[in-house]
Structures are given as C-alpha cells and as structure tokens.
Amino acid sequence: MSDPTLATLALLALAAFAAGWIDAVVGGGGLIQLPALLIGLPGATPAQLLATNKFGSIFGTATSSVTYYRRVRPDLHTALPMAAIAYVGAIGGALIGLHIPKSLFDPVILVLLVAVGAYTLLKPDLGHASIIRFHGSKHIVLAVLTGLVIGVYDGALGPGTGSFLVFALVGLLGYSFLQASAKAKIANFATNLGALTVFATTGHVLIKVGLVIAATNLVGGYIGARTAVAKGSGFVRALFVLIVSAFIVRIGGSLLGWWT
C-alpha cells in the first residue's frame, strides 16, 4: 500500500480527534474512526484497518480511563474483573476477526443500536442516578459476562463497543451514565489491548497512520472525559441518544444504499 498524502493524514487526524472525544463521553468512537480509515486507506487490508484503528484508539481509551478514575473514582471491584475478562474475550475476537468479512457485522450492529436507543428513550429516568441491580457475586458475574461478550465483539470488529458497554452497565447493572462511562473506559482499554495483542504480533499495524491518529485520539479522549465529568449524567445520556441515533442513520443508510 502506498503512503497516504498529507491531506489524507490531516482528515484522519480530525476524525480520530472526534472519535476520541465521542468515545470518552458515550462510547462508539470506532463508528467514526474505522469508516474514516476505510475511506482514507482504500488499499489497506481489513486486518490492517482493524489493527491500525485499535492502535490509535488505545491511546484515547487509556487517557480517558485515567481521567475518569481520578475524577469519578469508579468501583474497581466491578471494573477490574470485567476488564480482565474483556481482555481475554478481545483476544479471541481478534483471532476470529482475521478470518471473517466485515460486511456481516453492519446488520447486527444496526439491530443492536436500534434496541439500545429505543430502550433508552422509553426509560427517561434511566442512568440519571446509580440504582445498583443485583449484588455481591451475582453482580460481578454479570459484569464479567458482559465484558466477555462485548470483548469478543470488539476484538472481531469493534465499532460501537463503548456505547454497548455503557448501555449494559446502565441498563443491566443499574449504574448512572457517568459511572457507567468511567467503568466502560477501563473495560474498553482492556479490549483494545487484547485486540492489539493479536494484531501487533501479526504485523498488521500501519505505524505512520497509527501514530497520527493515536496523538489526536488521545487529545480527544482527554477533553471528552473532562467534558463528561463536568456536565454530568444528564448530558451524557442526551449525547448518548444523539450519537446512537446518528449511527443508526449512518449504518442504516449504508445498508439501504443511500451512500457508500
């Protein structure tokens, strides 16, 4: 594959900044960054696109994870086991992702996003405050299973992972949107690391592009996390609905042939 032009790198950097910001607040930055890579690097293989996307994303999730932890102090008794299993799941998912076509995932992502968005809209009080569901070992087991399932998905493809993590923590386990975002970032960092464990060792990362999007994704992640903490759960919920709706339109329109 030939080296991208400076204009292409600039546009990828802008997309990565937006992806980092959105990912830090509500998750789903991959639904911006991965399509941008697909458009900007038409000569890259699917494995190179997935690998480079993960390389750029992990810097943003690492930064937002630290920022959330310092300012929100999420409960690590739930977050760390969830993240550990999510890491293992992402390794398995990445091994799957090396062999399956990306085209199979868009319909699945669309159905999940519609379900998530509808459920959030129909429950206006969802995520405004933490009302923890299940307790003790049952709570941890459900968090771990969530991490495993979403970790496999993130390793195999990834777009929307952060949004799915946030929704699972809010809808299933009862956290506020702000607390859920904090825990989701820790788990999302683990899934990115798990996928990179496979992709980096197989030599699929495009280093030049990866470093560019890593730098801007990092800045976007830092600013996004600070924005979410400052604005609170109400802001995160509103943006969550907006972003999920935009993703539904983008993916649905693509499947219907409205745009390429």
SSE layout:
Layout lengths: L5 H20 L4 H11 L5 H27 L3 H22 L7 H18 L13 H21 L4 H12 L4 H23 L7 H25 L1 H23 L5
General description of the model:
- This protein is mostly helical and 260 residues long.
- The protein has one domain.
- Helix content is 78%, strand content 0%.
- The protein contains ten helices and no strands.
Summed up, what is this model?
By secondary structure, the protein is mainly alpha-helical.
Give the key terms.
mainly alpha
Binned, the helix content reads over 70%
Order of helices and strands: HHHHHHHHHH
Question: How many E-type strands?
Answer: 0
What integer is the average pLDDT? 85
Q: In DSSP terms, counting alpha (H) and pi (I) runs of 4 or more, how many helices?
A: 10
The gross shape turns out to be globular
Oligomeric assembly: single chain
Radius of gyration: 17 Å
Uncertain spans: none
Largest sheet: none
Tell me the number of structural domains. Answer: 1
Give the percentage of residues in beta strands. Answer: under 5%
